[in-house]
Design brief:
eight-stranded mixed sheet, Muramoyl-pentapeptide Carboxypeptidase, domain 1, 2 domains, alpha/beta, L,D-transpeptidase catalytic domain-like, 4 helices, two-stranded antiparallel ribbon
């Protein structure tokens, strides 16, 4: 990949010429047009008809809008920019995937336990808080639909959202309530426990909630 770099001794805001304008930069433009065989008139710092014609020819050659007016892009194209060849970096290595290949989660509300399996083999088991009697944790078959790190507040340090309503598995800012019926239906875990299972599951991991 080539990077073109152009250093100008003045700002591009100075480039605003109309027909019959006079400016020392117009003389510079006329000199550049002469070098490109696009202008045969004198260098007199005046934006006359011949200079406009030379600019129009240059814009057509560069596939720019042929207005005959010197806009910043036309002015920069007139100058010779230095070219630097840059070798693109190799693609970023894909982030390591620590998810278990056959991860699935079983939540048992009667014992208030969460068990992480790899296939049929249990890997971890942790105590959880579940929904109150008036807002019970919904039984059924779900899957993880969203993973969020450090959601904060009552959600603690991790959120594993389920593909059902607004329910999810998450940490807590009140760890003394783990093991009780306390939530509005979500499954609460100690922060260090949910942090342990977070990298081992992925979006799509099955979650089974049973009594």
């Amino acid at each position: 990949m080539n990077l073109r770099t152009l250093y100008l001794p003045h700002g591009l805001t100075d480039i605003d010429f109309r027909e019959d304008s006079e400016h020392y930069l117009i003389g510079e433009i006329q000199q550049l047009l002469i070098q490109k065989n696009l202008y045969q008139g004198p260098i007199h710092n005046k934006y006359d008809t011949e200079t406009i014609r030379g600019i129009t020819l240059f814009q057509e050659k560069e596939n720019l809008p042929a207005t005959g007016m010197v806009d910043p892009l036309t002015y920069c194209r007139l100058h010779q920019a230095s070219t630097t060849t840059i070798t693109p970096l190799s693609p970023v290595t894909k982030r390591a995937d620590f998810a278990l290949p056959r991860a699935n989660i079983l939540i048992t509300t009667s014992s208030r336990q969460l068990t992480l399996f790899n296939g049929n083999a249990p890997v971890h088991q942790f105590p959880v808080g579940i929904g109150k009697a008036t807002t019970p944790t919904p039984l059924g078959n779900y899957s993880i639909a969203l993973k969020v790190m450090n959601p904060g507040g009552v959600l603690g340090t991790r959120w594993l959202g389920l593909n059902y309503d607004s329910y999810g598995i998450h940490g807590t800012n009140r760890p003394w309530l783990i093991g009780t019926m306390v939530s509005n239906g979500c499954i609460r875990m100690h922060n260090h426990n949910v942090e342990q299972i977070y990298p081992l599951v992925k979006v799509g991991t099955p979650v089974y909630i049973r009594n």
